[in-house]
Write a structure and sequence with these properties.
The chain is of the alpha+beta class. It contains 8 helices and 14 strands. The longest helix is centred in the middle third of the chain and has 15 residues.
C-alpha cells in the first residue's frame, strides 16, 4: 500500500503479515509518501514516510568550499589531523549566518508487532544515527536490528534520516546542513511525536538514543530543549576529543558524487561518504576479534556533513 497523506491528522491501522494489528495509530502531523511494513526480523510493525519540517537557526558561516577532488578532500583530512592544527578555528571564524527553510525528513515509526503489546507501549525511543550512516543503522539485518530488540522489549522507536543524509533533503552541505539547524528539526519532530496516540493512549516517556554524531546531536537537543526527553542513551561518544582526528582518517572519506556505486551522482561534493574498503569499517567500528568476521553486516556507507 502506498499513498500520499493530505490531512494534518490521520489514523493509520497497521495490518502486518501474520496477524492483524488493529490498534489505531493517530499521527498529529502530515506524512507524505507513506508506506508500511515490518522491521528486519519482523518483530516491529513500521510506518514510513516523509515529515515536512519548517525550521530556522543561526548557523556558523564556514570559510570553506566543497572539495574539488578526492585529493583536495584527503589533504583537508590531513590538515585537520595534524598535531597543533588550527584548521577548525580558521574555517569557523566567519561569524554567524541565519538559515531557514522547509525540508522533507524521512522517518520510520515502529511499534511491537503484537497487538496487545503495542497497545500498552509506554516509552518511545527517538533514534539518531551516526555521522557516516543513516536510519538503516538501527535496522539493517536479521539478528542485528536495534528496532527489533526494542520492539521485543515493548518499546516503540522512531528513526530518521537527518537533513543531508539518506532519503531526506540535501540542501547546501556547508552553510545549511549544520548542527544548529539539525537541533531545530529534531525538536520539531519530537514535539509532534509527543502528541502521538496508540488506541487513544498517549506514549508518556520519550528517550533520546544516539550513536556517535547522533549522541552529540541528542545532547544538543537536551541543551536547548531539556524537556524534549525523559531519559538518554548515548553510545559512541566521549568527553575527550583526542580520538576525533584518528576517526577522521579511519573513515576514509570521499566526496559522495565519486562513490563507485553511482548512488550520489548530482550531489554537491561537500557531501561526503565513507570508503567501502573493509578496513574503513573495522577501524572506527569493530574491535577484533569481537565481531562477525564472516558476514558483511556493517551498514552501507551513507552521506555525512
Amino acid at each position: 500500500m502506498h499513498w500520499t497523506a493530505a490531512l494534518a491528522l490521520f489514523t493509520f491501522a497497521f495490518a502486518a503479515s501474520g496477524y492483524d494489528l488493529k490498534s489505531d495509530l493517530t499521527m498529529p502531523f502530515t506524512l507524505t509518501n507513506v508506506t508500511y511494513g515490518t522491521s528486519a526480523d519482523g518483530k516491529a510493525a513500521c510506518l514510513r514516510g516523509n515529515f515536512r519540517a519548517t525550521a530556522s537557526a543561526s548557523n556558523t558561516r564556514l570559510l570553506l568550499k566543497s572539495p574539488a577532488s578526492q585529493a583536495e578532500l584527503t589533504q583537508t583530512t590531513v590538515d585537520m589531523a595534524r598535531v597543533g592544527s588550527d584548521y577548525m578555528q580558521r574555517v569557523t571564524s566567519g561569524g554567524s549566518i541565519s538559515v531557514s527553510g522547509t525540508f522533507q525528513i524521512y522517518i520510520e515509526l515502529c511499534l511491537p508487532n503484537n497487538v496487545s503489546v503495542a497497545s500498552q507501549v509506554k516509552t518511545l525511543q527517538f533514534l539518531s544515527h551516526g555521522g557516516t550512516l543513516d536510519h538503516t543503522y538501527w535496522d539493517f539485518a536479521r539478528g542485528y536490528s536495534y528496532v527489533d530488540a526494542a520492539a521485543a522489549a515493548g518499546y516503540a522507536t522512531v528513526s530518521y534520516d537527518r537533513l543531508g543524509t539518506g532519503l531526506s533533503d540535501h540542501p547546501d552541505p556547508n552553510q545549511v546542513v549544520q548542527a544548529a539547524l539539525q537541533v531545530e528539526i529534531a525538536h520539531q519532530l519530537i514535539q509532534g511525536l509527543r502528541r502521538l496516540t496508540v488506541r487513544g493512549r498517549p506514549i508518556g516517556n520519550f528517550v533520546g538514543v544516539g550513536h556517535s554524531a547522533g549522541s552529540a546531536l541528542t545532547l544538543g537537543v537536551v541543551r536547548k530543549y531539556p524537556r524534549d526527553f525523559d531519559g538518554l542513551i548515548l553510545t559512541g561518544i566521549s568527553a575527550s576529543m583526542e580520538s576525533l582526528r584518528i576517526a577522521e582518517i579511519a573513515f576514509n572519506l570521499q566526496p559522495a558524487p565519486l562513490d563507485p556505486s553511482g548512488r550520489f551522482k548530482g550531489l554537491d561534493s561537500g557531501y561526503l561518504t565513507q570508503g567501502s574498503i573493509t578496513q574503513a569499517f573495522q577501524f572506527p567500528f569493530f574491535q577484533y576479534p569481537g565481531y562477525d568476521q564472516k558476514s558483511k553486516l556493517h551498514p552501507p556507507p551513507n552521506l555525512r556533513r
